[in-house]
Design goal:
Distance between the termini: 98 Å
Strand order of the largest sheet: 2-1-3
Structural class: mainly alpha
Helix content: 55-70%
Number of domains: 2
Number of helices: 8
Shape: elongated
CATH topology of the largest domain: Receptor-associated Protein
Length: 206
């Protein structure tokens, strides 16, 4: 697969510029034309796939992806168009690359589960099984809605665990800070006050 930079005109005469992943420039052009775009320019991108593949897709980003996709599928939007909309909105380079692959491959007749299975580092077996079950039963919107809720719960649980782990650290940090304040400011003043009292007592005896 190669990355191609393209500039196209939409049916509303809007100019769009983006990147598409395809085996050849001919396949890239074919995919764009099938989406109803008028191609103004298309060329091999200077950006390599390795750059887009760096990093990972976080749990919260996967949850958002599933939630938006479920909503659009439920509204009757075709899968390729829904994927393209999410792809254009996402800021995560890795997820953008994955969605580019999904968009192109689905238009070629592949299933979304078979494409996502190439990215097992970010999409585990449970995720892929749920997507495949939705494909086979014709309820992909429900599968992605379920995945969105489960991923959101997982994310919230992780945040709570992090918060619980941070609490003792904050307490210990506060105790150390208090000790330093006592050592640097309070203790010297107490020693000075004690010394002054001793001197006063000695003067009184004299």
């Amino acid at each position: 697969m190669t990355l191609y930079t393209y500039k196209v005109k939409t049916r509303k005469d809007e100019i769009l510029e983006d990147i598409i992943q395809a085996p050849s420039v001919k396949d890239a052009a074919s995919a764009l034309i099938s989406d109803g775009y008028q191609i103004l320019s298309i060329k091999k991108s200077e950006q390599n796939i390795g750059g887009l593949m760096s990093g990972s897709v976080s749990i919260s980003e996967k949850a958002s992806f599933c939630r938006f996709l479920a909503t659009m599928l439920r509204a009757g939007l075709p899968l390729p168009e829904a994927i393209d909309i999410i792809k254009d909105e996402t800021k995560n380079k890795k997820l953008k690359k994955v969605l580019m692959d999904v968009s192109f491959s689905v238009r070629k007749g592949k299933t979304i589960s078979s494409v996502l299975s190439k990215y097992k580092k970010d999409f585990d077996s449970v995720f892929l099984t749920m997507v495949k079950a939705g494909e086979e039963s014709g309820t992909m919107d429900k599968s992605f809605d379920y995945l969105s809720k489960q991923l959101t719960l997982t994310y919230e649980l992780i945040q709570k665990v992090k918060g619980a782990m941070m609490y003792p650290i904050v307490i210990v940090g506060a105790m150390i800070a208090n000790f330093i304040v006592m050592l640097v400011f309070v203790l010297p003043n107490l020693m000075l006050l004690s010394l002054q009292r001793c001197r006063l007592a000695m003067c009184t005896l004299c």
